[in-house]
Amino acid sequence: MSKKVIILNGSPRKNWNTYKMCESFANGVKESGNEAEIINLYDIDFKGCRSCFACKLKDGKNIGRCAYPDGLTPILDKIAQSDGVVFGTPIYYGDITGVMKSCVERLLFPFFEYKEGFPSIAPKKLKTAIIYTMNVDEKTCQDLYSATLNRFEWFVELVFSKPEKIFAYDTCQFTNYDKYVCECFDKVHKQKRKEEQFPIELEKAFNLGKSFV
Question: Which architecture, in CATH terms, is 4-208?
Answer without folding.
Answer: 3-Layer(aba) Sandwich (3.40)
